[in-house]
Write a structure and sequence with these properties.
There is one protein chain. By secondary structure, the chain is of the alpha+beta class. It has a domain at 8-59: 3-Layer(aba) Sandwich (YefM-like fold). 24% of the residues lie in helices and 21% in strands. It has helices at 13-19, 25-35, 77-80, and strands at 8-12, 38-42, 48-52, 56-59. Strands 1-2-3-4 form a 4-stranded mixed sheet.
Amino acid sequence: MRNGTVDLVFANEAELRSLYETSDFDTALKQLRVDTKLGVVTRSEKGCVVASKDRVVAVPAFPIEKNGGHHRRRRSVRRRIPVRSGARRKS
């Protein structure tokens, strides 16, 4: 990364801090901006940060409404894939 061969890095906050061996997110982010052209770091409920050499953009997370624990069942993928003519369908 430091020799300029990496253009884009995706990481979560813990991975970024581990990569730069620091417990401070801001220190790790500052180093990421030096080492890459573009970095995207997810931060759970804090959203994510998109960073380049000249700019940092914080994107907030949006809460997901709970639906009372009821989930719609999904049909299996096999039922959604059309059968080609001449192809046999397993039961």
